[in-house]
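Entry 14. Structure prediction run on the chain below.
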Amino acid sequence: MWTICAIAAPAAFAVLDRPAAGRLAGTLFRIETWLGFVCAMLLFATALMHKTLATRVGPPWLIAATAAAPLLSELVLSPMMAAARAANDMARFGMLHGLSAILFVGAALGALALVLRFNRPA
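Output returned:
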């Protein structure tokens, strides 16, 4: 997640034209969204099966919020952004893109919190 935000997307916009870079970044964010969702489901399943691990994983609400934010962006905001772009409503597109970015940064911070919590001394 952090690599896409900090390295892959900026690098794509540095070397590709804007439409191609946007498509590449969108594809990477889409892959990350579904990969994060699968990881969250595996984390929930593992925590249910191993109660000692459940105490180290982190609060279930944080896991759910970390997975839900990009999923909300993908399932709700992405179609709205595509419609705004098709209508050439760049102001609306920009607003939706900003909201999507906020959700993604929130998920990235949530993931960081979960990693730090999991890796703390027992």
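The chain has a mean pLDDT of 90.
Filed with the rest of this week's runs.
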